[in-house]
User: Fold this.
Amino acid sequence: MVIFEAVPPVDWAAFFIGLAGLIFGYIQSRSRLPKWVRRWMDRLGQDKVEQAVEYAARLSELSPEERRREAAAYLIRLSEKELGFPIPESIANLLVEFVYQQWKRRV
Assistant:
């Protein structure tokens, strides 16, 4: 059995600093894309992905699922134009979802 009064204050401080570091690390990593997806984001630019989200948001006659698909398709077409080759659909979906969450918080 652990007697809490016997634990030195320095150990408690180290424990809470470590715990705070774990919590902040988890919060920060939760809002980040995987490295292999961030490379695509860097190549295209977040403004281009946001442009795709805004384009799809203007299509009010579509359902939310259809808008997401249209934003991903727009992003694929944009990458063909900008990079010379299409990005994979799964990457386009991840980028659209990531930027959409940030865009939605702002708007």
Notes: The first helix runs from residue 9 to 30. The chain has a mean pLDDT of 87.
